[in-house]
Please model this.
Amino acid sequence: MLDKTYQPAAIEPRISAAWDDSGAFKAGAGTSPDGQSDTYCIVIPPPNVTGSLHMGHALNNTLQDILCRFERMRGKDVLWQPGTDHAGIATQMVVERQMMERGEPDRRTIGRDAFLEKVWAWKAESGGTIVNQLKRLGASCDWSRERFTMDEGLSQAVLKVFVQLHKDGLIYKDKRLVNWDPKFQTAISDLEVVQVDAKGKIDWSADDDEDATGPEFASLEKALARSPGGQMYHFRYPLSQDGSRHIVVATTRPETMLGDTGVAVHPEDERYTTLVGKMLKLPLVGREIPIVADEYSDPEKGTGAVKITPAHDFNDFEVGKRCNLARINIFDEHAAIIDGEEADESDIPAAYRGLDRFKARLAIIKDMYEAGLLAKIEPTTHQVPHGDRSSVAIEPFLTDQWYVNAAELAKPALAAVRGGSTRFVPDRFANDYYRWLDNIQPWCISRQLWWGHQIPAWYGPDGEVFVAHDEAEAAELANAHYGKQVDLSRDPDVLDTWFSSALWPFSTLGWPEETPELARYYPTSALITGFDIIFFWVARMMMMGMHFQKDVPFKDVYIHGLVRDAHGNKMSKSRGNVLDPLDIIDGVTLEDLVAKRTAGLDKERTNRVAKEVKREFPEGIKPYGTDALRFTMASMAAQGSDVKLSIDRIEGYRNFATKLWNASRFAEMNECVRQTDFDPASVNETINKWIVGETERAATAVTAGIEAYKFNDAAGDAYEFVWDVFCDWYIELIKPILNSDEESAKSETRACVAWVLDQVLKLLHPFMPFITEELWAHMVEYGEKRQKMLAVSRWPQPTGLQAPDADAEIKWVIDVISEVRSVRSEMNIPAGAKIPVHLIGADRSIKDRANRHEDTMSRLARLDDIRFEDTAPRASAIIIVGETTIAIPLEGVIDMDAERARLKKEISEAESDLAKMDAKLANPKFVEKANPAAVEETRERKAELEGLMAKLSAAMARLDT
RNA sequence: GGGCGGUUAGCUCAGCGGUAGAGCACUUCGUUGACAUCGAAGGGGUCACAAGUUCGAACCUUGUACCGCCCACCA
Model:
């Protein structure tokens, strides 16, 4: 027997283990004996190998699992390819932080090999976490095929791609400005830069400050320390020939003036025409720099004259190129002002050498002030680029890096989506994809990190580069080049993590080997991911897939939203509102939850977060089980919208699981045993014909929902069918049959219940795999032992079974019961009291119906008699169900005023509806132009309402006599 | 500056041309042999605003307001 209550914790581990043992999720497991099964393949968006499961993963993987389980049950050969990503910067950062916390020497001290050993150790230690968590979620991946981006095989793919693209001229080395992250001291790509607003507060002008050259700077300095960013500084740059004349330039980055090599004005800006070509003397430095004319300069902005720092600004770099300006680098890799030999060559004044960029800024402002060359400080709001991982301001920095010619690779990738080979769902995301790829810049792929795929490039003594699959091959190339053996040194840099991720759909299938899996499963069927990585990942997989496989990596790209908290806020550590999927599944005490959410926060935040948590979860979080979480995710995954997750909602779906559990208990207790030869087409009982039709409708709706990636619709349809149709009506309506001694009706109904329940378990399985698998196994106690697990049994096939007569009859029964209940409640008839009803003027067919369902109606509406009469008793409540008039005689019990009020309300509702129909039909244009079906529907509705009105009015008149 | 979403019941959201829906919350009643993690009955909405198209608009068009996101640039 099933336990009285459903305990997810008690069954989930056992079911997981059973799935594992069965090998049911292995690629090819679903292949028919002739090997002809259609394939269905999804590659998992690989989570960071050292990461742990968050709500984004829970949503993402629930949706993938729904699709995979659905298709597997539909008989396809499903491969859900799992794996993890080495996540270059993120992982290296974690390990470095750990080393720091433990007071160990830093990575540069211990060296590359020793450091990598530590990272691998950390991977070994924590690498299984996320995989195990995905298993807890029920992810039906083929775990035997788990891959890691730095596996030998996947590394071979990276090598091959790099070498090939280099050979094709699509990977090259270049010296240009990159986004430099001074914290990690590496280049990062455009996508890894986020803009952060800097808002200034200081408003100061030399004109208001008579003596703007004295030591009064102190107060200004304090203000600057309080409001370090967001100011626009106006500097006077004196002319070389006449130091009393100057040009005013504006800048938000005073420190870069040390690298200024020109000032640009617009060629048509009359204020400056006479000055073009003249020289300025760069203050504090003394360097002679020219005034140049360039269209980049906008007369409307600032002073119309713009200082040019070609080595530290993307726009200035271009201006410098056009106007032949020198590039003077003023920073080292920490973004401090350079020192030493290089500084000598750049004539950086000694005072600033070695200063951090922000200290240098302050020093320069001060010195400019004291030189009387600071004209103005204006508050402004501007955006400062920051590294998305490091959260420090990035610095445009002139370095040698490796680039991919993305514009070239983008062409077939764009064509594939434009041509429909790959489809975005929802399709509006295709526009983002086009816009980005149409304007794509070279992709900087080298990173000055150690954790990752080291770039397969070797340098000769003169710097000549040899790109090869391995050192031996590079040596051969070098030999050929130099005509002798030379010492080679390998490029120390590694590749952007996304470079290897871009190969994921084919590298995980075995490429560069020509494996059977590659042939069978590529292109994959669908990619399920969030919009935040369309550029990082989706677009790049498209580029690499098209280039190396000559085919798209996936046919559909389903883009889901972000998981937010119940109030719509982004979940974040610092906000302290992060819900951990495992806490939802297993539950967590208040103490543990507070501890988790406040870990690593400062004192002020800890207090705020702790208070908030105590308010929101006074009793911690109860264990809701995986299925409840999954069902919630599916129900809320409406296309194109974010998921706002609330505990209330999860609790509701946990209740749904309990409901299903108890419906199964009911079936079990009533010996509703599965009959292997049960044929839903052959049922005789009206109620069974009805539920067979309802089941068919539900199956069709759920199937259509999943096929269309409308997970919320599919989940909603299944929910409604199970709760509102199967539990609330079918089970209630058959109780009299099951309690009767009509053996044939009884046995048919038992078999039918078992059959419907089987269909229900199947329909719900993609959403709630654990409880359905458990119930599936349980429902065999008296029946024939099942051969297969639910996970590999067959999805309900369309039966086409509909029984309109049965539908009409059951609908009538349901309506009668509902209406009687409603009257009982409104008339305040005690719930326990049994009452008689009179069917007024019922014809043969109504009488038959009433007789057939007497037991059921009596039971559910608490009736003690159903009589057929020609007229209603004087004191009675009247209800109308279709053509049937039902009187509830309640002499002495009924409250006449209440009944009058009730009828009045019904009449007024009917009147208002009728008026609408009349108005429509009275409009000749409606009759003339509207869809004939709509007109007919309106006429029918009108007739119906008129019938209702007549009956209600009669009832009212009777009441008043 | 350019683009994309959103604005529907107290809350969170579906619906996207033809009788305004769900879950939760709320009110009343209920220990009837699956289930109180439940059942029954109810209350609650000029579908942000304005103009248009249409026989008919929550739904289509345009505009406005507010909220959110993405991209680019601002010396």
Summary: The first helix of chain A runs from residue 8 to 22.
